[in-house]
Amino acid sequence: KHGIYRNIPYVPVNSTTFDQNRHVLDVYSPKTKNTATEVVVFIHGGKWKMGDKEMFNYVGVNFAEQGKTAVLINYRLSPE
Question: pTM of whole model > 0.85?
């Protein structure tokens, strides 16, 4: 089984620009004794207008099951 760490802020939470739904990421880590793993950063598509990291959680799970660490991010959408 792998580890999943959800909704980690990547913008200071006390910032006036922080968006608790969009400025967060999830980390999917493999269950391994070796802490040094390859890291894949996945940025979802959607033309800056739609999409969410939750739509692609299977990507994180798949990489973790293959022994890689995956980071899935949300970002502010247009026109924000």
Answer: yes
